[in-house]
Amino acid sequence: MLLKVNNIDTYYGLSHILQGVSLEVKEKEIVTLVGRNGAGKTTTLKSILGLAQVRAGSIEFDGQDISRLPTHQVILRGISYVPEERRIIPGLSVRENIKLALLKSHNREREEEMIERVAQYFPVLKERLNQDGTSLSGGEQQMLAIARALVTDPKVMLIDEPTEGLMPLLVESIAEIVLEINRSGVTVLLVEQNIEMALSISHRAYVIDEGRIQTSGLSQDILADEEIQRRYLSV
Amino acid sequence: MDFNVIIMQLFTGLSLGMLYVLLALGLSIIFGLLTVVNFAHGSMYMWGAFVGVFTVAWTGNFWAALVLAPLGVGLYGLVIERWLIRPLYGRDINYPLLLTFGLQLIMIEVVRIFFGTSDHPFSAPALLSMPLEVMGIFYFPAYRVFLIVFTAVICFVLWFFLEKTDLGLIIRAGTRDPLMVRALGIDMNLIWWLVFGIGSALAGLAGILAAPIRSVYPEMGIAMLVECFVVTVVGGMGSLPGAIVAGILLGIVSSLTTLVYPQMADIVIFLVMAVVLLVRPSGLFGKAGLLE
Ligand SMILES: Nc1ncnc2c1ncn2[C@@H]1O[C@H](COP(=O)(O)OP(=O)(O)OP(=O)(O)O)[C@@H](O)[C@H]1O
Ligand SMILES: [Mg+2]
Predict the structure, then answer these.
(1) With bands split at pLDDT 50, 70 and 90, how would you rate the model's confidence at B58?
(2) Which protein residue has the closest C-alpha to ligand 1 atom 1?
(3) Mean pLDDT across the stretch A80-104?
(4) pLDDT score of B1
(5) Measured between CB atoms, does A155 come within 8 Å of chain B?
(6) Same-domain status, A23 and A136
(7) What residues have CB less than 8 Å from B265, skipping those under 6 apart?
(8) Is B167's Cβ below 8 Å from some Cβ in A?
(9) Pocket residue to mutate for ligand 1, from A11, A17, A18, A33, most atoms within 8 A of Cβ
(10) Number of domains within chain A
């Protein structure tokens, strides 16, 4: 098991958000976490990253407990993060955004090589290297956010709503990219609002609601189960 | 009025402005990244001047003082951040403000206890004590010329550091989105620590540079701190170009006012602040990033 979240309780201040969430991600899998607005999907990812306060339970990565580690050390162990709303850093060029991700990685000295690799996935980024990252279109910013997470050769990528606000055509190409990244050997934990897309590209899925995992199984089974869709996923 | 006198006063204003610039840069870089309003900045400036006074008393060497003052105050800043300010991150921003406010009082008191309340004479190094002649009409004190050039060099070094180095990239990014920077594997605690040290060192440097042209006494940083807050507000909180432009502007305005209407000299910068805030509520350079 590459990543194992074990019965965690997560709080924002006094609000108790996650109540005993458990999930597992095996090497080379795409696992998706689906649920309504406010269900606790982002909070689950933030808990893994040490960005939200986990008060009980444990999180194991590669056999070691990472639940007490500060965020930067979690990242250095081989987890990378594509956050909700992209969070491209304002005032930095596309190149600088990528460089920032490389600074603490073993690819630090291979900036040009990494930019070439990014260009294979996203040719458009290479044309915009010196442009301010936040001046890119929504789709391009999403590509940059994924590129930034890719260049460190992570073992696992945590991807939060990569298709939010994108046109259908782009949604499809982002889905394709996630598949491709996974085929290159990167394990993926994906959070999505676009349930059909997420379930169709992932191997397994967890359904979260009100801070608890309600059910889990093979993605295709969950996609086929109308009862689950009605109870936990319809708006 | 004599043209000569105006030029001289402009020049004096520019050198005062440079002290504002150094202090405001320190305040702004700390505020921009850590969102800490450092009320101890004025007493760090004062400590820089005292380190200078004692280094010169012992070694007779101004240049040694010019190195030791920023170094000593910078190290002091590192200690303060690590053990007093860091435990307050994640709480209300008033906590570090109150802490540094108290620290300022303690720092002043410590100097009073050990060195008394009187002025400590300090003269510019012999090399810089003659006037420089320009075009046979103007005679600028060499020390002030040095102060202006030296500060300009420091500004350039700081710009280069922030724009062209990896650490500078992290600092610029951390000013905009510290959480995302952490999520890219960077230890922001370390960066905050270093930047507090750098900001403190700049205050110490301003102190030693000010020593030959202003009086050195325990309370010398109090009014200076208030003036530098005005500079950062006029320039735009957290903006480094703002700190530079506003520092020079207010130095010159205040010194020209001394010439035409000395009674107003102490308050004119507040008037400038009021006017700027009416026209541009977030200061001349708004609030975007450190270098904007
Ligand atoms: N910083 C915060 N402080 C307090 N409460 C928060 C905070 N962030 C999220 N919450 C609350 O925690 C709950 C879970 O939020 P979370 O962001 O994990 O939901 P989500 O499943 O990612 O939803 P969405 O699909 O809208 O992104 C919500 O009720 C939300 O209001
Ligand atoms: Mg979310």
Answers:
(1) very high
(2) A12
(3) 96
(4) 62
(5) no
(6) no
(7) B254, B255, B257, B258
(8) no
(9) A17
(10) 2
pLDDT above 80 (res B171): yes
Query: pLDDT tens, A7-21?
Result: 999 999 999 999 999
In a domain, A145, yes or no: yes
Say which CATH number the domain at A43 has.
3.40.50.300
- Arithmetic mean of pLDDT, B33-52: 96
| Residue A64 bridge partners (DSSP) | A61
Report the pocket of ligand 1 as residue ranges, CB < 6 Å: A 12, 15, 17, 35, 37-43, 84, 193
Q: What is the domain range of residue A208?
A: 1-78+154-163+185-235
**B125 exposed, middle or buried (CB, 10 Å; 0-12, 13-18, 19+)?**
middle
Regarding whether A158 and A146 lie in a shared domain, the answer is no
CA distances from A191 to A41, A45, A101, A199, B17 (A): 7, 9, 21, 10, 53
Q: With H, G, I as helix, E, B as strand and everything else as coil, classify residue A192.
A: strand
The predicted model gives A205-228 an average pLDDT of 94
Report CB contact under 8 Å: A90, B177.
yes
A89 with A56, same domain: the answer is no
Do A18 and A57 have their domain in common?
Answer: yes
pLDDT at B231: 97
pLDDT of residue B290: 67
Question: Residues A123-149: pLDDT tens digits?
Answer: 999 999 999 999 999 999 999 999 999
Asked if A44 and A216 count as a contact pair (C-beta separation under 8 A), the reply is no
Q: Among A5, A9, A12, which residue has the most ligand 1 atoms within 8 Å of its CB, making it the best to mutate?
A: A12
Residue B29 near residue B90, CB atoms below 8 Å: no
Spatial CA neighbour of A212 closest among A74, A8, A1, A53: A8
Comparing CB atoms, the residue among A87, A96, A105 nearest residue B185 is: A105
Q: How confident is the prediction for chain B on average, in pLDDT? A: 93
Please give the ipTM for the structure prediction. 0.94
E-strand ranges in chain B read 131-134, 138-141
Same-domain check for residues A71 and A90:
no
pLDDT per position as a tens digit, B230-240: 999 999 988 99
Mark whether A28 and A66 lie in a shared domain: yes
Determine, for residues A51 and B173 on separate chains, whether the beta-carbon distance falls below 8 Å.
no
Length of chain B: 292
B292 CB neighbours in chain A (<8 A) are 91
pLDDT of residue B53: 94
Asked whether residue A171 is domain-assigned, the answer is no
- Contact A154/B at CB under 8 A: no
**Does residue A5 lie in a domain region?**
yes
Domain check: are A124 and A230 in the same one? no
Q: Establish if A178 belongs to a structural domain.
A: no
Token representation of residue B118? 């009187």
Statement: residue B292 has pLDDT above 70? no
* Domain limit, last residue, from A132, A153, A174: A153
Domain ranges of chain B: 19-220
Chain B nearest-CA distance from A100, in A, is 7
